Predict the 3D structure of the following.
Amino acid sequence: MEPVTECILLAAGEGKRMRPLTTSRPKVMIPLANRPMLEHLILAGKEAGIQRFIIVVGYGEQAIREYFGDGSRIGVEIDYVVQRKQLGTADALRSAEGLVSGNFLMMNGDMLLSADEIAEFCRMPIPALAVSETDHPEDYGVVLLEGDRVVNLEEKSKNPKSRLINAGAYLFSLEIFERIQMIGLSRRGEYELTDALMGYINEGSLFAFCLRSWMDVGYPWDILAAHELFLDALQAENLGTVEEGVVIKGTVAIGEGTIIRSGSYIEGPCIIGKDCIVGPHAYIRPRTSIGDMCHIGNAVEIKNSVILNKTKIPHFNYIGDSVIGSGCNFGAGTKIANLRHDYTVVHVGGIRTGRKKFGAVIGDNVLFGINCSVNTGSLIGSGCRIAPHSFVDGVYDDETIISR
Amino acid sequence: MCGIVGYIGRRQAARIIIDGLKKLEYRGYDSFGLATLNGDISLAKKGGRISDAGSNTAGLSGRIGIGHTRWATHGIPNDQNAHPHLDCTGKIAVVHNGIIENYAELRRDLTARGHTFRSDTDTEVISHLVEEHFQGDLSSAVAEVLPLLEGSYAILVIAEGDDRIIAARKASPLVIGIGDRELFCASDVTPLIDHTRRVIYLDDGDCAVLSCSGCLITTGGEQVSRPVEEVDWDIMDARKGGFAHYMQKEIFEQPQVFYNTVHAVRESPEALAYFVGSRMSLMIVACGSSYHAALLYKYLIESYCDIPVRVEIGSEFKYYAPPLTVPVIGITQSGETADTLAALKMAKAWGCPTIAITNVVGSSVTRIADATIYTRAGPEMSVAATKSFIAQLAAGLQITAFLSDNTALEMELNRVNIMIEDTLTIEVEDAVALCCTAQSIFFIGRGLYYPVALEGALKMKEISYIHAEGYAAGELKHGPFALLSPDTPVIALAMPGKTYPVMISNIKEIKARGAPVIGIGIAGDSELPEIVDLFIPLPPCNEVAGIAMASVMLQRLAYYVADGLGCDIDKPRNLAKSVTVE
């Protein structure tokens, strides 16, 4: 059998659960260790032998097209198709008709998967569905297997009959395009791939492949666990300037044009992007990703956090276990709490994060006045402006003005 | 008005074209069809709405295709007259939006040269002309044919043995969408935006060749480059082409509609001849907004042509049962208004010549009447009539000019579309705010502006649900004065002309009773703004343009008031677009 070399990536959705980080970018462009999620997936696919990717874009398509271009920068061939409205997976696949030439892989663009597993999956008989075991199957539709074949798909229920869920990766032959033409609108008002899969299941021809490395990055706090994966595999490098009197421990990657000023103390694993200014006297603790063109100033401590591009955290700030968007500015003395005094798991807007230590989710272009206190579990929408000395707690929509 | 869609690329064309045509249904929906190219041309077309016909694309394979949703102008809506139209050999297919004005002559010549026509459309001449010029290169064949066509067109042409779509436009819209290894073209961007944001708006006279390797645009034989523009999806989500409601969109189409109708009526000498036959007197029957147009016809024809005109409401006509011999004219947008149809049938039974003025080709009224004059408003989706009223007015003015042989008036009509356009941007915010709080509004005018006031009141009440009354200004003191209070705004039409001085005294009388007055007059008027609470100035104009502008202004006022009050503007409660029962 010919090896599978073509892959359709579904990346048209906003990823609403990731708000406010999706205000100005689609979910797949959220960086993990300073690389968009989608790039990690494409690079893993490339390593597994995929040469050509067709990305189905929609929400924020310009950001994806501009970042990846024709793919030559990362050594692959990339084509794009547009799915403008979220009319289901079958509709997304239909928009890519005519661009794949033989058996192909299809994956959700927001999943994380290792190259080895992609390669292994691509050697499965066709058609095949990737599944993953979870300890909370009640949150998903589940997949029932007999041997290596899928025998049924069940909708989300309180008493799921299986712990295996559809992981969102498929192997198909071109024949799938004929099948999806027949699909009608579902009760949810979408063209669902499940309808075509049920056809294969009834013929007894749908194979299942169980993933081990699959990870669901659904909510902003899941970013912390996901970026850790990549930080743990990080290679140390220094393309910038490190002044005298800087202490660097563990694996730290420093980008081009970045200056680490004297007196800073950096503990890896940690990645700092291009053209940043860090210090003097900044303290950066393990599992921190700092994007490009950031400023981390004097007497600032950052721990286990993700900071996106062009954010300034310049004077006397503490940021712990938080995800901060791009273009934010922290007033002097503004801090984020990351631990409850009852030591219970932090919830954000009523949703359980699963983490006892969690700070806040801050959108893009949020401006803090001096000496603001952000409580643990807060979520601040993009473009919010916060008055000096404010106590911020809870969930705020984009563009909210928060005064004392 | 019709809608066209074309596709060339990597996917099966039929489904994309059908989905696209559904989005263009507002441009026409009396029949539809499509042709795909897969070695041979496969054709499917039929009468009726595409959205009722489903999406069956069986038998239409191919990655190149063209489609059309029709609003009849030449030939009644049926399967044969639906586009695409093939040549004699069945190897060339054409879809067309617009009107080929010299088609009768072209058709005669083509028939003489042995071509067989299958339809009554103007479009089919293009298929046969391309057939005559086609020698293996479709783009040069089309380029040779275009100079032979007079009138307006946006066309798409495909042919067996040529894997391209040739697109051309003159005075009809056409947009190209640049997708990912696929190209689209359509009458407007709505069918394109599901697939791409990148579009090229073709200029008049442009001819584009769409192929798998891209899009080449020429104008007058010279290659040109047109800018690729990015469509803002959020704005397009309004779907009605950037407008919040069909009514708003149709209000904005009125300059074009006025122009198209004046020209179409000029070119209907056979129907106009029916008016000339009877210079003694005329009878007009109509309902709703068409009745108000009929009242304007009365004022116009009586004053310009010295022909007495009697106007009756369709549903009342039968109770008078006058022994008539004069020509009877029925005005109905849809051509299906039951009361107007019944009146025309009665008149016909008495032996009167009957003339229909309608917007829908092939509608019932056209089969009853001896002659038909078409308004060219295109499909009107909003229940509240706007552009069909302006089209009826345009037809009436052109008929008046014809009957009175008044070339000055005819010249004047060429400029009215520009005047209407100026009216579309005049600020009405304060007047809207005042009307939004009212329980009752009076509209008053004299002479020609009396029917305009009646129509303005009808628009206001039907979409904003505010009680509105149109009155002849002189009648107000015979009763309705009792209702005036500071809570009942009065909208007064005080345009220049012989009614102006009396209108001014009427307005003063109203002001003396404490009612707020919104005065609609002419910019530069120094007296009117002094006595009214709010003054809406229209650009200086003559009487003819004045009625059109004042009518459009009152439509806009009703629209914004209804919008401000959150009403369902396109589908007002209890109303239907076409009233087919008595």
